[in-house]
Amino acid sequence: MSSGGAPGGAVIRVVVDAMGGDYAPQETVKGAIQALRPARAPDRAPLLQLTLVGDTDLLEPELAKYDLSGLPLTVVPSVGKIGDDEHPVQALRRKPLASIVVATKLLKSARADALVSMGSTGASMTTAAMILGLMEGLERPCIGGPFLGLAPRIVLVDMGSNLDCRPPLLLSFAALGAVFAHKFLGIENPRIGLLSIGTEAAKGNRQVQASYRLFQQSHLNFVGNLEGMDFFTDRADVIVCDGFVGNILLKFTEGLGTAFLRYLGKNLSPLLSPEDLGRLSADLLQMTNLPRRTGGPLLGVKGAVIVGHGSSRSDGVAGAIGTAVRFVGLGLVDSMREELSQIYRGDLARPSHSPI
Amino acid sequence: MSSGGAPGGAVIRVVVDAMGGDYAPQETVKGAIQALRPARAPDRAPLLQLTLVGDTDLLEPELAKYDLSGLPLTVVPSVGKIGDDEHPVQALRRKPLASIVVATKLLKSARADALVSMGSTGASMTTAAMILGLMEGLERPCIGGPFLGLAPRIVLVDMGSNLDCRPPLLLSFAALGAVFAHKFLGIENPRIGLLSIGTEAAKGNRQVQASYRLFQQSHLNFVGNLEGMDFFTDRADVIVCDGFVGNILLKFTEGLGTAFLRYLGKNLSPLLSPEDLGRLSADLLQMTNLPRRTGGPLLGVKGAVIVGHGSSRSDGVAGAIGTAVRFVGLGLVDSMREELSQIYRGDLARPSHSPI
Hints:
Two copies of one chain form a homodimer. Chain A is α/β, with parallel strands linked by helices. The first copy, chain A, folds into two domains: 1-138 and 300-331, 3-Layer(aba) Sandwich (Isopropylmalate Dehydrogenase), CATH 3.40.718.10; 142-290, Isopropylmalate Dehydrogenase (3-Layer(aba) Sandwich). Helices cover 43% and strands 15% of the residues of chain A. Chain A has twelve helices and eleven strands. An eleven-stranded mixed beta sheet of chain A has the order 3-2-1-4-11-10-5-6-9-7-8, sandwiched between helices. In chain A, helix 2 links the parallel strand 2 and strand 3 (73-77). In chain A, helix 3 packs across helix 5 (121-132), helix 4 (99-108) runs parallel beside helix 5 and helix 6 (167-184) packs antiparallel against helix 12. The longest helix of chain A has 26 residues, at 243-268. Chains A and B meet through helix 8 and helix 9 of A and helix 8 and helix 9 of B.
C-alpha cells in the first residue's frame, strides 16, 4: 500500500468503486472520464491513472458511450455491491467480491494510491478498517473535512456517524482534523474547538466536559468550547463533535438548503431571470453540501480513502477523485500517522508545541 | 396561580420581565406598548393587561417616551437582573429582588396569567422550576415549539439545553411537545419522531436506542427515528432530541441564516432593488429563527412562561406576549399536566389511543 504520497510529477493511481452511489455506474463512469480530462491547466495536473471496479456487464455499456482512446483507464471486475441497508460487517463476509471489497484490496496491495467510493459510507469505513487497518492506537476511523460552502475553511470531525465517542477518541479525531486543516487547507497551527452549548469550560454534556480536560492537556491548539453559530465566527478551524451530532448537522443542513432553494425559487422567480435563478440555486446547493462536490476523506485508516455523497452526479465523482489526488500528493496518511503516534506516546502536555 | 386559561373574552394578564434581554429596557418597554396596540383586529383580540417588572429608575425614562393614557399597563419595581453569565441557582439566592424573580412570583401568586422574559434562559427556567414548581413526575422543564420559519409546523423539543437526558425525560418532553402541537398548532394526533442518524430502529446512539423502546411502549403516536433532513420532509410533527443537540441546531441555524444573508446580499445586490433585497433579508431572518419573533414556551412548569431570544427587539417582545396570550387562552398548562399524568400513571401501552 502506498500511503506516503506520490513524489512530485509522479503518476497518482486512483481506484474508483464504480458500483457505489445512487446513480452508479452511469455517473461514476462519466465522472471518472471527466476527471481524466480536466478542463483547465492539464499540464500542471499530476498524471492520473484510474481503475474502475465493477460488474463488467454493467460497466461495459457505459464505457462504450465514450471515446476512451489514450485515456489511462482500466477496469477490474467485481461481483455485486454492498448497499446502505446492509450490515457492513455481515455484508463484507457474504460478498467477498463486492466492488468496495475488490477496490479496497487493490489499494491494500499497492496497485492503487487512493480509493474513491460514493457507495454506503458504513461499508467503505468497515472495509477500509478491516482490509487496510487502522492507524496505531485508533479505535475507529472518522470522516472529516469542510462541509459547508458557506464556511469552506472550517473542518468538521466526525461526519462519519461514530456514536457515543469517548474523549480519547474525540481527541484522536481532533488530531486527524488538525493535520487535514494544516496540510490540505494550509492553515498554520489550526485552532481546535469542541462543539457544545456555551463557550465556558463547564458548559456541555458529560462527554464534552470530560473531553475538555483531555484536550487541554494535549499539545493541540485547543481554543475551548464552541457553539452552533461558531461555524461562521472564525473562532476555530477544526470543530470536533461525535458522529451523532455531526451527521445530524450534515443532513439538517442539506435539508435546510433544499428548503431555502424552494423558498427562494418562489420568492425570487418574479424578480430574477431564470438563468440568474438557476445559477444562484446551483451555488446554494454547494453552499450547503460541500462533500457532494468534493467527497469527504476517511481519516485514520492506513490508506487514502475518499467517500462521496450517495447522490453524487459525475461532477461529484470527479471532485472526489480530485480530492484523492491532492490527499495522496500531500502525503496526508503519513502525516496523520505521525500526529497520532504523538498523541498516543502520551506526549500530550507541551503547550507551545505546534499541532502538526 | 392561574393555569387553566382565561375563559372566552376574559382579560389575560401578562407580566413582562422588562430588564431581560440585550436591549432591555428600551425594547421590552417598546414591545409591551406595541402588544397593547395591536395593528389589526383589536376587537377580536382578548383583552390584554400588562405588568412590567424592572428597576423603576430605568423604566420610567423609557415609559416617558410614550403616551400611556388609557393603556392597561402597570409597573412593579424590582432590583437588578440575572445575567447569562451567572449560575442561575446561586444568582437566585443572591438576588431575591431581581426582575425575573419578582415577575415569577407575580405569576405564582395569581396576579398574572403568564410571564414573558427575554433574559437569561437558564435563569428563567430555574426560577420557574423553583417558584412555580414542575408538573408532577417531571425532573426538568424544557423549551419546545417551532424553531424554523421554513418549517413552521414542526415542533422541536428540547431547545432548553437539558443535557444528558435519560429516556423517560425525553418521553416527557415528547408528551409536552405533542400537546403543544395539538392545541397550539391544531395538529390532530401529532406524529412524534426521535432525532437520530438513520430511520431504522437500531440506528442511533445509546440514548436514542433506549428511548426508542420506551417511546414504542407509550401511547404517543411514535413514528420512529428521524434524520436531520426530516425537519423538511413531513414525516413527523414533533421532533425530540436532548437539549445538547437542540441548542446546537438552534444556534447553528441562526449562524447559517446570517451567513446566507451575507452571501445573498453579495450575490443579489447587482440583481435586486435595495427594497426587494431588504424585504428578502428580513424574511430570511425569520425563516432561520422563529423564536426570535414568537418566543418559545417553557414546558413542564406549573404556569405559562414564554422565553424570548436575548437579542429580541420590540417586535420579538410583542410576539412573545402574543404567544403568551394564546398559550393561556388555550389552557395549555392544564392539558400538559393531564398528558404527563397519563405518562406517569404507567398508562403507556394503549396503541390506538390519541396522544392528547
